[in-house]
């Protein structure tokens, strides 16, 4: 590593001042370390890139403050110390060959082909399963190591820890750094993932990487809108004007998030990289861990936030948007309006607007199932016997429907092409099914009763005549 802390980063305030370290490098977490049978209080330092350079020019050793066991640390020196313990190398937990699904003797062409296939499969914009993004990062890290002859040689010999600790005569900052996996994906496939520095901001260049930590452009979030349509508007489509609440660029700071009249300055803690290095001593040796800078949250800059937007660079406003609802939409349909969501940060692309459709009931009781319209018509038992013409309400208006004689209760009559247009195919329409319900009167007047009795006698007479033909 660029700054090899062989025993641990020891010392108290006087140690740091003795080395003339920057104030930003003296923020530390207290940890305990064991050296022989004595115990001392040691600290874990956050070192920015400029601090590591300053340390590497020092060839001095500092006694652990308050300790009687005489443990030493070496700042920047790679020469062996008499009091220093041997470093330990640990094999990587992740097998990069297995990650890409290639043999250990695979050539560069096979490695590149395996990366292309797996990167497409596990890209978070395509694969929404839990853990897909983490797998995508491992795939990118594996390709970055195995496609580089020097890194691959060190990895084959020492494992992942060799890359972290700068084995083979190479510094950890050069050998252990991982680039943004989305940048690597864009180099292969083109375009922009619009994810900004998600991986790089969270993990930086993993183990002493050299990439900056400033936030890149970020795509805006999607917005949603609930639209309730009249029954016929959902059937035939309609032009609607909706009032959408969304985040738009702040006029006070022009989207920068910085207070007007001020400017951003380089973060004093991380030196503008957006990352700090934490040196940690474990029973297996000393390791450096890159973390997001806690002062600037990985931005690399410090600034006074805008009073209007609070530093976000965006404020919520209302905007009227014209929307064309296509024919054939139904309750639960979702319409996507590209670019009408929240504006992006740092000049990023805007998100999309998703309009969720619900439909009001039809006032005449028409029901819908897909492209089929259902309704009921009620007729008397006399009309069912003799046949009739009934007025039926359809999506096209009132229509005369001929009901044939002898229609039975529960009969379904079909009016072809009187239903709902297919979504995206306006010329193709479903049917309208009319369900016939026959009403039987509970009471009859004297004349009606007399007529029905005569009808029954007539039917009985006909029935007797038919049965007499077969009698002997």
Write the topology of this structure.
Layout: H1 13-18, E1 28-35, E2 38-47, H2 49-56, E3 61-63, E4 72-74, H3 96-100, H4 108-122, H5 132-146, H6 149-158, H7 160-165, H8 172-175, H9 181-189, H10 198-203, E5 223-229, H11 231-236, E6 238-249, E7 265-266, E8 275-282, E9 285-292, E10 301-302, E11 314-325, E12 334-337, E13 353-359, E14 367-369, E15 372-380, H12 381-386, E16 388-394, E17 397-403, E18 412-415, E19 421-422, E20 425-429, E21 432-439, H13 446-469
Parallel strand pairs: 5-13, 15-21
Antiparallel strand pairs: 1-2, 2-8, 3-4, 6-11, 7-10, 8-9, 12-13, 14-15, 16-17, 18-21, 19-20
Helix pairs in contact: 4-5, 5-9
Kindly describe this structure.
The chain is 25% helix and 28% strand. Mean pLDDT is 76; it is low at 1-92, 169-176 and 190-213. The chain contains 13 helices and 21 strands. With 472 residues, it is of the alpha+beta class. The strands form 8 sheets. Strands 1-2-8-9 form a 4-stranded antiparallel β-sheet. The protein starts with 12 loop residues before the first helix and ends with a helix. Residues 237-318 form the CR-type domain. InterPro entries: DnaJ (IPR012724), DnaJ_C (IPR002939), DnaJ_domain (IPR001623), DnaJ_domain_CS (IPR018253), HSP40/DnaJ_pept-bd (IPR008971), HSP_DnaJ_Cys-rich_dom (IPR001305), HSP_DnaJ_Cys-rich_dom_sf (IPR036410), J_dom_sf (IPR036869). Residues 95-159 form the J domain.
What's this, in brief?
By secondary structure, the protein is an alpha+beta fold.
């Amino acid at each position: 590593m660029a700054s090899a802390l062989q025993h641990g980063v020891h010392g108290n305030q006087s140690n740091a001042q003795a080395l003339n370290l920057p104030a930003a490098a003296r923020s530390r977490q207290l940890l305990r370390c064991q050296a022989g049978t004595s115990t001392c209080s040691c600290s874990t330092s956050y070192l920015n890139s400029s601090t590591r350079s300053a340390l590497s020019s020092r060839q001095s050793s500092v006694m652990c403050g308050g300790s009687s066991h005489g443990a030493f640390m070496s700042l920047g020196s790679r020469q062996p110390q008499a009091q220093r313990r041997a470093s330990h190398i640990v094999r990587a937990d992740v097998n990069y060959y297995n990650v890409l699904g290639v043999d250990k003797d695979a050539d560069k062409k096979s490695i590149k082909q395996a990366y292309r296939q797996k990167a497409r499969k596990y890209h978070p914009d395509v694969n929404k399963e839990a853990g897909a993004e983490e797998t995508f990062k491992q795939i990118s890290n594996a390709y970055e190591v195995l496609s580089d002859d020097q890194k691959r040689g060190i990895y084959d010999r020492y494992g992942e820890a060799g890359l972290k600790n700068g084995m083979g005569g190479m510094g950890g900052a050069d050998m252990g750094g991982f680039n943004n996996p989305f940048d690597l994906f864009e180099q292969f496939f083109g375009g922009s993932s619009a994810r900004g520095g998600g991986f790089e901001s969270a993990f930086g260049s993993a183990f002493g990487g050299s990439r900056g930590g400033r936030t890149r452009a970020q795509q805006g979030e999607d917005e949603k809108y609930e639209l309730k349509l009249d029954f016929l508007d959902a059937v035939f489509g309609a032009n609607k004007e909706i009032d959408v609440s969304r985040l738009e660029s702040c006029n006070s700071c022009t989207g920068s998030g910085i207070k007007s009249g001020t400017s951003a300055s380089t973060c004093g803690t991380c030196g503008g990289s957006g990352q700090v290095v934490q040196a940690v001593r474990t029973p297996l040796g000393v390791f450096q861990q890159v973390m997001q800078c806690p002062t600037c949250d990985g931005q690399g800059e410090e600034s006074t936030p805008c009073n209007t937007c609070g530093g976000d660079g965006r404020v919520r406003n209302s905007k009227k948007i014209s929307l064309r609802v296509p024919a054939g939409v139904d309750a639960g349909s979702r319409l996507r309006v590209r670019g009408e969501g929240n504006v992006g940060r740092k000049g990023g692309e805007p998100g999309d607007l998703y309009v969720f459709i619900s439909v009001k009931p039809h006032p005449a009781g028409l029901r819908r199932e897909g492209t089929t319209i259902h309704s009921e018509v009620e007729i008397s038992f006399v009309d069912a016997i003799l046949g009739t013409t009934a007025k039926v309400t359809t999506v096209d208006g009132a229509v005369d429907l001929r009901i044939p004689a002898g229609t039975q209760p529960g009969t379904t009559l079909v009016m072809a092409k009187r239903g709902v247009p297919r979504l995206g195919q306006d010329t193709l329409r479903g049917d309208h099914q009319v369900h016939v319900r026959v009403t039987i009167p509970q009471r009859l007047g004297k004349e009606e009763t007399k007529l029905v009795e005569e009808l029954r006698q007539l039917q009985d007479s006909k029935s007797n005549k038919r049965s007499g033909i077969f009698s002997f």
